[in-house]
Design goal:
The chain is an alpha+beta fold and about 220 residues long. The chain is built from four helices and nine strands. β8 (about 190-200) and β9 form a beta hairpin.
Length: about 220
């Protein structure tokens, strides 16, 4: 207890890092190398150290546990349910990031037994309250699908319209009407043709990119 008679608590950070591999939405997880929950899967994260900001803590833990360094992290929410951590009263500030799967290679660091990308719709049981954190992150991302360009951070620099639709469907957890989706893409999301195409089993599919300099249609 402190001088005011109030219970002390520890601050921690957790990181929800989503990637899209062209077919599935994936989540970066670590297998814990020490108790509590040794051997179980969890989000990367850890305790705030003296002299750190919360974002500095999140970046350090991500680097130490997975070897990953990211340019952008967005604060998601605070999680403070009593009993969420068996070590005591721990408040965690969660951060959310979206990455291109081809750009990020995860390797277990000194604080984790293993690091891996796991399919979000087939996750193992997660330690602590991390399943709740992941669920909130998915809802936050789904809510932003059609009001921001955030989901395009999951796609490669150049992508087909089919790849974009699959990514949006994985995030929203629901099928999307192809015609309506493509109409919205062309009207609202600042797409520009690259002049290139991707060849597959069927006819070549045009490649697009997000034009960050163009204002969205009103």
């Amino acid at each position: 207890m402190d001088l005011a008679g109030r219970q002390l608590f520890a601050l921690a950070t957790d990181l929800v890092i989503f990637a899209f591999d062209g077919d599935a939405l994936r989540l970066l997880l670590v297998r814990r190398g020490k108790p509590p929950f040794r051997g179980e899967w969890a989000l990367p994260g850890g305790f705030l150290e003296h002299g750190e900001t919360l974002e500095e803590c999140a970046r350090r833990e991500l680097r130490e546990e997975t070897g990953v360094e990211l340019r952008r992290l967005d604060q998601l929410s605070a999680f403070s349910t009593p009993g969420r951590d068996p070590r005591g009263n721990v408040v965690s500030i969660a951060y959310l990031a979206l990455v291109r799967a081809s750009n990020v290679l995860a390797t277990a660091g000194s604080d984790a037994a293993e690091a891996a990308w796991r399919e979000v719709d087939a996750l193992p049981k997660l330690a602590f309250d991390h399943a709740d954190i992941v669920e909130m992150a998915r809802r936050r991302l789904a809510d932003a699908l059609y009001t921001t360009t955030a989901a395009f951070d999951l796609l490669p620099d150049s992508f087909t319209l089919a790849e974009a639709q699959t990514a949006f469907e994985r995030v929203s957890r629901a099928p999307i009407d192809k015609r309506n989706f493509r109409s919205w893409l062309h009207k609202e999301s600042r797409l520009r043709e690259t002049g290139l195409a991707r060849r597959g089993q069927h006819r070549p599919a045009k490649l697009y990119r997000l034009d960050q300099d163009q204002e969205p249609a009103q």
